């Protein structure tokens, strides 16, 4: 039972354009969400997060949007750069109480390729 | 060390053999997690150690899997009587108490292949 789903296995974007990565979840008790980025042969690294009490969080070129009624979140990268090419995972925490503590449930990942 | 160190980086084993995977967390990090990533899948939670508390073993897929953390530092994940479906990348992560998931640092993983 995949509770966190990333339905697009891959995404290809031109440098300078916007990249939009999507994530859907099924469990309404998830209340904290994170995005991780992974390069080949490396472990994932934390990118940005959002609590369920918010609908948007921004950090430089990266913005995460949360639509709780649709159980959907998205990561926007603008402008996209070739160095952003990596696998992006969304993750969720159950009953975190609005904090970032607890075990993560990950999606399958989306491979982003940014072409120069 | 500067990061989370996992060994070996690659392991090929015959079906039915036991394997041990090692994780050296960042010094001072009290929380340690094991995840695995099978081909085409997301990262699957296995087990979580936090300080001296009893570990959360709820993600271990069968009783062939066990993990221990000695002295609050190094952790070993043991898989007994390996099966082909155990083939995956096993990732370890650690964090300092109080940092939550912001402070997660993952190792590079151990790629396990069961033949």
Helical content band of chain A: under 10%
Helices and strands of chain A, in N-to-C order? EEEEEEEEEEE
Q: Beta-sheet strand percentage of chain B? A: over 45%
What's the gyration radius of chain B in Å? 13 Å
How many helices of chain B? 0
Strand segment tally of chain B: 10
Query: What is the first-to-last residue Cα distance of chain A?
Result: 38 Å
Largest interface: A-B, 26 and 24 residues
The biggest beta sheet of chain A is recorded as: 6 strands, mixed
From the N-terminal CA to the C-terminal CA of chain B, the straight-line distance is: 33 Å
If helices are DSSP runs of H or I spanning 4 or more residues, what is the number of helices of chain A? 0
Strand percent estimate of chain A: over 45%
General form of chain A = globular
Give the SSE string of chain B: EEEEEEEEEE
Model regions low in confidence, pLDDT < 50 over at least 5 residues of chain A? none
Q: Which structural class do you get from the secondary structure elements of chain B?
A: mainly beta
């Amino acid at each position: 039972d995949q509770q966190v789903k990333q339905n697009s296995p891959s995404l290809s974007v031109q440098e300078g354009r916007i990249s939009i990565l999507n994530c859907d979840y099924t469990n309404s008790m998830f209340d904290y969400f994170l995005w991780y980025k992974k390069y080949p042969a490396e472990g994932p690294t934390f990118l940005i997060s959002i609590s369920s009490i918010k609908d948007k969080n921004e950090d430089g070129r990266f913005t995460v949007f949360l639509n709780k009624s649709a159980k959907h979140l998205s990561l926007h990268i603008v402008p996209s750069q070739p160095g952003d090419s990596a696998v992006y995972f969304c993750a969720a925490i159950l009953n975190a109480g609005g904090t970032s503590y607890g075990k993560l449930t990950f999606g399958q990942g989306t491979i982003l390729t940014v072409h120069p | 060390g500067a990061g989370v160190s996992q060994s070996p980086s690659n392991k090929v084993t015959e079906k039915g053999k036991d394997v041990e995977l090692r994780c050296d967390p960042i010094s001072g990090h009290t929380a340690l997690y094991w995840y695995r990533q099978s081909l085409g899948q997301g990262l699957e939670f296995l087990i979580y150690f936090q300080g001296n508390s009893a570990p959360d073993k709820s993600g271990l897929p069968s009783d062939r899997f066990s993990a221990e953390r000695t002295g609050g530092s190094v952790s070993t994940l043991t898989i007994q009587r390996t099966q082909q479906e155990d083939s995956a990348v096993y990732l370890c992560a650690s964090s300092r108490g109080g940092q939550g998931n912001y402070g997660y640092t993952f190792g590079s993983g151990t790629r396990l292949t069961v033949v």
